[in-house]
Write a structure and sequence with these properties.
Layout (H helix, E strand, L loop, with lengths): L11 E5 L4 E9 L4 H12 L5 E11 L1 H17 L3 E4 L2 H10 L6 E3 L2 H18 L1
Parallel strand pairs: 2-3, 3-4, 4-5
Antiparallel strand pairs: 1-2
Helix pairs in contact: 1-2
Amino acid sequence: MPDSPLGGRPNYRIETAKTATIVHVFNDIDIANANALGDALFRALESRRPLVIDLSDLVYVDSVGMHILLRTVQRAERAGTAAVLVATGLIRHVIEQVGLDRIVRVVPDVPAAMQALKTKSRSTAAQS
């Protein structure tokens, strides 16, 4: 597991699923840990596998954290890699308020994210 920048507990866990990389984020994303999370998300994109960012256990996100999520989604798009956010409640509300949901799919749970990736894969293949 990654080290937290302040020596505390890590705020994310990376899971390699059969068809995607899932980054589970919990507790909070703020100025103290956003860069470490960003580094992990950017490294996950290097594999060119679809990326699920699971925010279902996230309690708080500040503007720096939202910026990291935006940059990750933009990098995924430039790399031709699918990305999906998992969020509900207050975190989903914040995502909608800043308009991030207009550029990336936001779903309520990881199974829905995996289904969204399958649907995107099929529609991309049909366009080719």
